[in-house]
Amino acid sequence: MENIIKDTKDTIKPRPSSExxxxxxxxxxxxxxxxxxxxxxxxANWLAYDLLAQPEGSHLGESLAFFxxxxxxxxxxxxxxxxxxxxxRSFFTSEQTRAWLGGKREGVGNTLAALLGVVTPxxxxxxxxxxxxxxxSGIPLGVTFSFLTATPVVNEVALVMLFxxxxxxxxGLYLITGLIIAIxxxxxxxxxKLERYVEDFVWQIKVGQVAIDQEKPTWTNRFKTAWExxxxxxxxxxxxxxxxxxxxxxxxxxxxxxxxxxxLGRNAWWSVPAGVLLGLPLYSNAAGVIPVVQALMxxxxxxxxxxxxxxxxxxxxxxxxxxxxxxxxxxxIGIFIAILTIAIILTGYLFNLII
Length: 355
Description:
The chain is mostly helical. Helix content is about 75%, strand content about 0%. The chain has 17 helices and no strands. Helix 15 runs antiparallel to helix 17. The radius of gyration is 23 Å and the shape is flat.
């Protein structure tokens, strides 16, 4: 009996004190984050209108206030969201993702793949190994493309930033639209039977088996990984953020509202295709394009046109297409781009019509 009690006590491992210290540290950082976020607006106004003595309502004053407000706000939002996203990502692996998608029917598989593309935010550099892994696991090509489409188009950072800047309605519209595009594009590609346009070597690769029994990471390890990921990603994209905000500040302060409304307003039939074409060469990450989107909307651009512009910049990114060229033949890449472009344009027209 004593041995049983002893064995039971041995199997019950109390939470290490370091775990609680990690939670306390993260809680403190959240309080600091909230405090800094609430101080951004008065600090930006003080810099632009008091320290630099720019008149309120002037072109330069408005541009500077926009810049000083958006730079820290976007950086804070970006850092906070990357930290949260990395925590979520620690519960998912590419092997689990492939296992969940395997054997699903058309429609169901595409929907599940699109949803997973949102909550498992792999970067563009993961496109090739993920694609190979999906093919090796027997996942249909159309389902694979639903996942690959949703990952950049429904960008989780953009979703949270849209919520913070414009509210839940626009963020929800962005989410629903992106999911519909990912699902429909995947179904179309699946029905076209385009497997012959996948590079031959992909079908010959056998992905190695991964051990199932892996040690579950502690919360301390998750927090540490999230912090390291936040520092790394913010360190890589901060310049894009500043450039994007600078462009947005210029639009905000100097471009007349009438001109922007005429070019990208709902009344011009060509505004949506123009927005998509404008976004094609302007590769940026979500953090860099959101300030431009904000400035365009403030100047009278139509919501559907702006969403089409944003999806074009993020979803039709040249780097991802170049990476995918390693596993896809040019014709399939061209078909993929054409389907996405048409879907984005139709989405822009739809939102301009109903909103």
